[in-house]
Specification:
Strand content: 5-15%
Helix content: 40-55%
Structural class: alpha/beta
Distance between the termini: 74 Å
Order of helices and strands: HEHEHEHEHEH
Radius of gyration: 18 Å
Amino acid sequence: MIRVVILSLVFVFSCELLNTPEISMISESDFVEIQDSDYILIDVRTQDEFDLGHIDSAINLDFYSDTFQNEILSLPKNEKIVLYCRTNNRSSKTATILKQNGYRDILVISGGITEWVKNGNDINYTTYSN
């Protein structure tokens, strides 16, 4: 009887794993190619990091902010979401949060802004007016 229960649990959990959405890592060159499609680009670095240079059209949601989880989970679940940070750490953690909350189309730019700049792509800078 215990074998049946264990096998049933294994089956249920393995089916659940098969139904989870994938988090896809894409290269910076792959991201350049999808720039004509619809997506929401999220930079999960701090505001100071974002101000030092970010990818055009990125929205900054600071991973370390007290309101981060509420902000990231307010994004529409039916949209493609592309994430990046400095390397991959915060963006991958963010992708996991989204995945656990029912988001389906999540992409992470492999190597983050570091790889983006290394490969000669343009970045934008936030300017302040006094």
